[in-house]
């Protein structure tokens, strides 16, 4: 009888364990934050890099990989002669070497050190592309009046981890469907409505401008360039399909470029070593690890990828077809799990590309030909036009719209 009373079923046990871990995490973070505040008070709230004044407008970048998002915005502020502070968690962020007069870039430490600085920041407005404000370690500072989120993607805004944007004051978006997604979440969660504005996608604008000023490498029309750019992990193409898929690509006779996700060389090192040894660089295949993907996207005629943002960069900016793997995923920990509406990404992918499966990858040559010159080419071109219309507003003017919003909001807060 006692054994039965003490028995806890596995589901309940797992839930209780999760609750205990969650409470422990909150307590640890609270103690850490209390200690940081004590140190801050005893040092007079100053450090060697900054005084204790309130900054007007701040950009927070958690890493140099987001410079493509913030760079166009910084350029716009510099062009207008407007002051903005750029705080980065990367010691080699490109912003730190820019010769700006009005954009003040500062390295604030990596990891927890950067988060601690942001948690005690004094500013009127903070712009960031980092989700989960006030959910995990990054907390809203009591001395910051307004937080603005700028996405670093051209698709669904609900593919962030749960509550990713709930505690922002405003979000600058690029498509009406994104506004609709956030409004549905706000209604279901009964939280205050955020200020949502259609601004655009500054990094894609800059990429398009660069494309218009770059000559594309001329290639033989009979010899297309196929770019394989998968994500990493169990659902990535190289993990799921491996060497047999590359062998089928080589059978097409087309030139193949393979650009794995950088994380693959760390988390899937054995797989990468084996594949690169089995398929070394030659006149028909080469591996690409350039820090900047612009040149390889420009060179390619068609992209093969999976659930990655690069498919929208390639199709919408470079105006070329894609082949993609099944984007189905477990979304239980993400905001979209609250929404009964189908993800926009799921509805648009069949219009801008063709699905690659284990059943058809042996016929990859025909799939490529159909996308480039066959019956599907016109339909896919029309799909790309539709996608741009739905997810990329204010083409060429995204940074201007972001700057307009921040400056106007700051004036409003000051008044």
Describe this entry's structure for a reader.
The chain is α/β, with parallel strands linked by helices and 415 residues long. It has 16 helices and 13 strands. Strand 1 (55-61), helix 3 (67-80) and strand 2 form a beta-alpha-beta unit. The protein is globular.
Task: Provide key terms for this protein.
alpha/beta, 16 helices, Rossmann fold, 415 residues, globular, disordered N terminus, seven-stranded parallel β-sheet, six-stranded parallel β-sheet
Computed Rg: 24 Å
Instruction: Provide mean pLDDT, rounded.
Output: 88
General form = globular
Number of strands: 13
Let me know the CATH homologous superfamily of the largest domain.
CDP-glycerol glycerophosphotransferase, C-terminal domain
Task: Chart the SSEs and their pairings.
Layout lengths: L1 H5 L3 H33 L12 E7 L5 H14 L3 E5 L14 E5 L4 H8 L3 E6 L15 E6 L20 E4 L2 H14 L5 E4 L3 H11 L12 E4 L8 H4 L1 H10 L3 E4 L5 H4 L1 H10 L6 E3 L6 H6 L2 E4 L4 H8 L4 E4 L18 H9 E4 L7 H9 L3 H16 L6 H17 L1
Parallel strand pairs: 1-2, 1-4, 2-3, 4-5, 5-6, 6-7, 8-9, 8-11, 9-10, 11-12, 12-13
Helix pairs in contact: 3-16, 13-15
Please summarize what this structure is.
This protein has 415 residues and is of the alpha/beta class. The protein has helices at residues 2-6, 10-42, 67-80, 112-119, 176-189, 202-212, 237-240, 242-251, 264-267, 269-278, 294-299, 310-317, 344-352, 364-372, 376-391, 398-414, and strands at 55-61, 84-88, 103-107, 123-128, 144-149, 170-173, 195-198, 225-228, 255-258, 285-287, 302-305, 322-325, 353-356. It has 2 domains: 55-201 and 395-414, Rossmann fold, CATH 3.40.50; 209-391, Rossmann fold (3-Layer(aba) Sandwich), CATH 3.40.50.
């Amino acid at each position: 009888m006692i054994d039965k009373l003490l028995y806890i079923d596995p589901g309940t046990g797992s839930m209780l364990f999760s609750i205990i871990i969650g409470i422990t995490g909150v307590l640890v973070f609270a103690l850490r934050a209390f200690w940081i505040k004590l140190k801050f008070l005893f040092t007079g709230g100053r450090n060697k890099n900054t005084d204790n004044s309130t900054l007007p407008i701040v950009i927070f970048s958690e890493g140099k990989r987001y410079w493509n998002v913030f760079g166009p915005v910084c350029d716009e502020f510099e062009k207008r002669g407007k002051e903005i502070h750029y705080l980065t968690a990367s010691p080699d962020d490109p912003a730190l070497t820019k010769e700006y007069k009005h954009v003040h870039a500062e390295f604030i430490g990596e990891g927890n050190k950067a988060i601690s600085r942001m948690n005690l920041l004094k500013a009127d407005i903070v712009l960031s592309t980092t989700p989960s404000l006030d959910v995990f370690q990054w907390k809203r500072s009591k001395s910051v009046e307004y937080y603005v989120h700028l996405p670093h993607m051209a698709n669904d805004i609900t593919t962030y981890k749960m509550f990713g944007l709930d505690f922002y004051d405003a979000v600058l978006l690029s498509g009406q469907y994104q506004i609709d997604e956030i409004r549905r979440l706000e209604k279901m969660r009964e939280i205050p409505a955020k200020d949502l504005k259609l601004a655009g996608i500054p990094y894609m604008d800059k990429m398009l401008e660069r494309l218009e000023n770059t000559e594309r490498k001329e290639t033989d029309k009979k010899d297309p360039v196929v770019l394989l750019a998968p994500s990493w992990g169990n659902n990535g193409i190289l993990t799921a399909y491996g060497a047999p898929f590359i062998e089928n690509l080589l059978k097409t006779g087309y030139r193949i470029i393979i650009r794995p996700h950088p994380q693959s060389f760390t988390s899937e090192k054995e797989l990468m070593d084996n594949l690169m040894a089995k398929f070394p660089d030659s006149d028909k295949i080469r591996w690409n690890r350039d820090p900047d993907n612009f040149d390889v996207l420009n060179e390619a005629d068609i992209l093969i990828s999976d659930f990655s943002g690069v498919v929208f960069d390639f199709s919408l900016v470079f105006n070329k077809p894609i082949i993609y793997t099944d984007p189905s995923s477990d979304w239980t920990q993400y905001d979209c799990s609250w929404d009964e509406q189908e993800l926009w990404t799921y509805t648009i992918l069949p219009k801008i590309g063709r699905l690659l499966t284990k059943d058809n990858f042996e016929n990859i040559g025909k799939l490529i030909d159909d996308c480039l010159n066959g019956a599907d080419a016109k339909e896919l071109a029309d799909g790309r036009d539709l996608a741009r219309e739905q997810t990329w507003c204010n083409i060429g003017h995204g940074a201007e719209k972001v700057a307009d919003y921040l400056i106007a909001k700051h004036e409003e807060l000051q008044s």
